[in-house]
Amino acid sequence: MTTRPASNTQPLRQPSLVGLKLTALRHTLRRGPKWGYAFVAVLAVLLVWGEVYGTWRALNFLGSFGSIGTNVFARVLEIGLITLSSGVTFSATTAAISTLYLSEDLNFLLTQPIKTWRVFALKVSETFLNTALVPAFLTIPLLLTVGVYFHAPIWASVLDNLMLTVF
Questions:
Q1: Widest CA span of the chain, in angstroms?
Q2: For 156, which of 70, 125, 131, 152 could close a Cys bridge (C-beta 3.0–4.6 Å)?
Q3: Which of 84, 64, 77, 86 lies closest to 142, judged by CA?
Q4: How far is CA 20 from CA 14, 24, 29, 113, 126, in A?
Q5: pLDDT tens track for 18-31
Q6: Which residues contact 157 (CB under 8 A, 6 or more apart)?
């Protein structure tokens, strides 16, 4: 009696690091506490609502003083964005060092049959997600609220948020 291995009808795929990370995220979300995810979602919604409400109230209050009030808000917004950019820069530098050089899975990934540039691209995107995405998502509701208050066209708000996310 001879045995033959089952034929593999699917062609072999190139290993995907993004697919590996997404699979790990899916397993984490499936096995994690659902009430914890709901709690974090409620906190995120409350944070965004508080940010939009507070910005709208501040703009109405400062707008009652005329152009000097809106100029004060513009200067405060500029200072806040500069401070945010500085914080992101410094945190991105330390996170990049720890993600690119001190990561525990780096030795494992570099020994796999995956191109080195793909490992590096994944680590750079991981650094971006860890450092710059949260401040960007916290700034987007603020910029949208300011755009709505000053009756900016839709394309200006989209362009502002695109530039914030990219840079």
A1: 94
A2: 152
A3: 77
A4: 12, 6, 14, 14, 13
A5: 787 788 889 988 99
A6: 143, 144, 147, 148
